[in-house]
Specification:
2 domains; mainly alpha; 19 helices; about 50% helix
Length: about 500
Amino acid sequence: MTISTLTSALHRRTESDESSVTLAPADRRTRFIPWAVALALFLIYAFFTVRRHELLLTSGYDLGIFEQGVRGYAEGRGPIVELKGPSFNLLGDHFSPVLAALAPFYWIWPSAKTLLLAQSALVAVAAVPICRWALRGAGPATALVAGLGYGLSWGLASALGFDFHEITFAVPLIAFSVTALGERRWTAAALWAAPLVLVKEDLGITVAAVGAYILWRGDRRVGAATVVFGVGASLLELLVLLPAMSPGGSFAYWDNLSGGSGGRNLLTLPLDLVTPGEKVTTVLMLLAPTALLAARSPLLLVALPTLGWRLLSNNPAYWGTSYHYSAVLMPIVFIAFVDVLVKARERDGVLPRWLARAALPVSAAVTLALLPGFAFSQLFTLDLWRTPARVEAARSVLAAVPDDARVAASNRLVPQLTNRCEVIVFGWPQQWSSAEWIVVDEDQPMGWPLPPDKERQEVAAAKRGGYHVVRSDHGITLLQRTAGGPAATADTPAPGTPGAG
């Protein structure tokens, strides 16, 4: 080695050392970003969801259902949910034993708010792996845009604006797993994905998709084992465990995938994925906050199982952007976005330079542009920040219901009582006459499970058939069965749930 070569090498080493010394303070200043983003999101989610509950904007379907299930676990009875029917085992509806993990928190604070705060924490912490990978691979600006873009996305707004659901546990598991895929940490990806089989029966196929990606891009043994585990778990749950615990003796949602009475026509299958147009709109909406760049990442393949069953379902509720169905897709989409940006920074030519430069401001602009169209827009209205007199009146009326009473309540009033009473929805199940107490909102009926006019007729029938008014304030009416009076009867046909499944 010549003197000049050695000198050049030492000079490069010195420059490298100086660079690392120079960058260290910046690293110390930015390494907090993932947890800062997660904390900010948690505070937003917690205020938003708890405040909605305090304003009677949550419902029995679904927050009341899940609180009854968690309360059952906390009391050692198992997830028995009277809202779904007498002695209904929630594990026979969807296989979600992961809900038992909330029981210790429910011991400390037996309230629907416990579920809402847990959901806020779980969804918020999913931002950590997204931000962390973006920070390491593409810098703090990318970490902030991707993390906040995920956290304020329409898919999460729709989920958090519609009560609580078991899939909230899947969101961080998917985020950590798919990030590990992007970083080529195959065993970690498989281990993070594995608990998804305890969240919901269809997520075993998502585990298999993670395994298929590992099989394709990395460790074949880990990938093959993950595929077998995921597929096997879903089959076991769908064909054995759910039928064994379901009142009907089978999985209740097969009809949603049957294609209707005529069954599924394989020749029209490609067309079924894109018609009606609402399905295409949903896919574009998923990609839009990433400036469509997420479509360039192979990591998006992990989203295909969930997208597939939704688009092929004959239930229109699954096709659109409402409810909670897109929540598990949002971390995948934004991790795919980060994957593309990290690769663009590492290797020239992956993206045109103008597109790589424009990606972050476009992503931020689209996220902000979509906010007014979804539930997070309520954060910017006065209605969420003030308490109407009718809400105060409702709280006062509900306080008159004794603990452990059997109550038939309007859907919006159900989760205000499920922590201390045995509650059914007024009008669903149809045996509301089995309740000693009835509490309804006569001024602002929700329209589910009964149309407003029909609900008023049922309330009138209760008053004629053995119930008397105990209190009524701002339309919130509490009735009690008259001692010795005849029981009312209800012949209302059982309605369907609003997009359940």
